[in-house]
Amino acid sequence: GAVVSQHPSWVICKSGTSVKIECRSLDFQATTMFWYRQFPKQSLMLMATSNEGSKATYEQGVEKDKFLINHASLTLSTLTVTSAHPEDSSFYICSKASSYEQYFGPGTRLTVT
Amino acid sequence: RKEVEQDPGPFNVPEGATVAFNCTYSNSASQSFFWYRQDCRKEPKLLMSVYSSGNEDGRFTAQLNRASQYISLLIRDSKLSDSATYLCVVNSGGYQKVTFGTGTKLQVIP
User: Fold this and answer.
1) Contacts of A42 in chain B (CB under 8 A)
2) N or C: which terminus of chain A has fewer CB atoms within 10 Å of its end residue's CB?
3) DSSP secondary structure letter of residue A59
């Protein structure tokens, strides 16, 4: 069964609004979770590493003030896309890792109109 | 040079064919290697890890060549259900942080 859930699975929002995406670990606690973005016909690109109880670590080129990450508990990380623009439309996927593999959520498809 | 490179394909092969994908990586310090499968609009799922000695899982064989910094995936007796994008994944720093290749699209045709 699924070990990582995401909500919502898809969302359409207007330009300038904010959208929150939730990522939950359903089995073991996850002190670290990862947020990826995937544009059509492109690979998954790591946006940030979410750390429980501390600040997220953002990859180069990812605006931390635009993509707010909160990891307030051992089973929940949230990504908020603030002031969304059409170019933020993408497939957002979260994951957690064990020593041997990453477990991905089902993804959230964001469309900004 | 990209950290992880793959031929995007598509590879169109008939059912029953054998097909191989290669992936090159630039960081010689990389320690862990994986092949993931991603179906359209779905999340990636682990297909297999790649070990130094090479490993096989049914119709799938993975190889690692550290000297040339590439990994490969061989699929024998292709099935229609093998149609997907195959992602090469390399540990890039810290035991949990990984980098994905752009993926190789496979289409198995009847």
Assistant:
1) 102
2) N
3) P
